[in-house]
Amino acid sequence: MSVAFRRDSDEEHLEPKFERPIPAGPNFVTARGLAQIRANIVALEALLPGLAEETEIAVAKRDLRYWRARQSTAQIVDRAAGKSFAFGHTIGFRLNGQDRSITIVGHDEAEPTAGLLSYSAPLSRAMVDAEVGSQRCSLPNSSCAAVIAMIVASRVGTPGMPPIGVISIRAGSIRAGP
Question: Which CATH number fits domain 90-168: 3.10.129.10, 2.60.120.1440, 3.10.50.30, 3.30.450.40?
Answer without folding.
Answer: 3.10.50.30
